[in-house]
Amino acid sequence: MKFKKADGRLVLYILAGTLIYSVFSEFESVLSLYLAKITRNPGEIFSILLMINSVCGLVFQFILVFWSKHFKGEFR
């Protein structure tokens, strides 16, 4: 059985999605518990950090879309 090689853009999208998901899941699981122990108002700080994470995720996606348009060939 022969498999086709994956397009380089697909590999970049999967890697970017995995990175964004892992950062978001880290925020959801551990950071909120840690903030509750060290600050008086963890909800406000946690909300600000989630907003920053969302903005960085959007910027990262725009960068990947730009790179994928200029990316020629396959991912090696």
SSE order: HH
Structural class: mainly alpha
Compute the number of strand runs. 0
**Which blocks of ≥5 consecutive residues have pLDDT under 50?**
none
Tally of alpha and pi helices: 2
Share of β-strand residues: under 5%
Our measurement of the CA-to-CA distance between the termini, rounded to an integer number of angstroms, reads 22 Å
Fraction of residues in H or I helices:
over 70%
Please describe what this structure looks like.
The protein is mostly helical. The protein has one domain. Helix content is 79%, strand content 0%. The protein is built from 2 helices and no strands. Helix 1 packs antiparallel against helix 2.
Key traits:
76 residues; mainly alpha; 79% helix; 0% strand
In short:
With 76 residues, the chain is mainly α. It is 79% helix and 0% strand.
Topology:
Layout (H helix, E strand, L loop, with lengths): L7 H31 L3 H29 L6
Helix pairs in contact: 1-2
